[in-house]
Design brief:
With about 270 residues, this protein is an alpha/beta fold. The chain folds into 2 domains: about 150 residues, Rossmann fold, CATH 3.40.50.1860; about 110 residues, Rossmann fold. It has 11 helices and 11 strands. It is globular, with a radius of gyration of 19 Å.
Length: about 270
């Protein structure tokens, strides 16, 4: 089912529904309890705000689905509502520094997810957590912040100093780094030209589904240089980096943010 979006700022939004066992509620809205068991009703609906890029959003769906199936057994699958935006439009807003318009798009998407029945909102991108406040101001359901899930994993691992790899926005701007530092972590980012390499590989290759062995080698070298600078762990602070850099590629603990965030969503849904 696709809903038209009339506001020009929100032309990017496309709603992809995965609402099973639902029926219309008299007077509007959606009811999720038709024809399901009491046990299944205990699973909350997860709202994924994705498409930034779709490569990582697909990863979220796969991780959540696999984890739900493993924990509940049988043919169980997650209750998901997935709304994807057109990343080309979001990328243009990022490049132009038009975070105000991007914030309206994120807020609108989150509201649509809540209206569809989502009981928690998961933003499937590190960079767009720059606009977390715009999202939380627009909804009444919980918002699972990716940096919090990541910081919790780093602290649990006993790591205090971490390297943060991600887009230039995530590495250079304060919104993500300060969230980690507020948890008591020391955050290192690559020097140039490594910082540009990390950013360019994300936008020129990974968000397009391109995996280049040479880029993987460059990422491994960058991670090694960060370890030499004192990093005790490496955060894959862009949800696409996990497509390229694996735990075996890093000599210290590796924190894949897509997986950590997706598992936090599963914990919320089941508990």
């Amino acid at each position: 089912m696709r809903f038209p979006v009339c506001n020009r700022d929100h032309d990017a939004l496309e709603v992809m529904w995965a609402l099973t066992s639902t029926r219309a509620r008299p007077g509007g809205g959606i009811r999720h309890d038709a024809g399901v068991t009491a046990d299944h009703q205990n699973m909350r609906w997860i709202g994924l705000l994705g498409g930034m890029s779709i490569e990582s959003s697909i990863g979220y769906e796969r991780i959540i689905t696999d984890e739900i199936r493993q924990r509940r057994g049988g043919t169980s699958s997650p209750r998901l509502v997935h709304l994807a935006v057109d990343f080309a439009e979001i990328e243009a807003m990022q490049e132009q520094g038009d975070w105000e318009t991007a914030g309206r798009v994120m807020a609108d998407g989150a509201r649509r997810l809540e209206a569809a029945g989502a009981e928690v909102i998961v933003l499937c991108t590190n960079t767009m957590h720059r606009l977390a406040n715009e999202i939380t101001d627009a909804i009444t359901v919980p918002f699972l912040h990716l940096a919090d899930a990541t910081a919790d994993a780093v602290i649990t691992a006993g790591v205090e100093t971490v390297a943060l790899l991600g887009t230039r926005y995530t590495m250079e701007q304060a919104f993500y780094r300060e969230r980690l530092e507020a948890k008591g972590l020391t955050v290192l980012i690559p020097d140039e030209p490594d910082r540009t390499t990390v950013h360019d590989v994300i936008y020129d290759e990974l968000v397009r589904g391109i995996i280049e062995p040479n880029s993987a080698s460059r990422y491994r070298e960058i991670a090694a240089r960060m370890v030499d600078r004192g990093a005790e762990g490496v955060i894959a602070g862009c949800t696409e980096i996990e497509l390229l850099l694996q735990p075996s590629d890093v000599a210290v603990p590796y924190f894949p943010t897509t997986r950590l965030h997706a598992l936090a969503a599963v914990e919320f849904a089941l508990n």
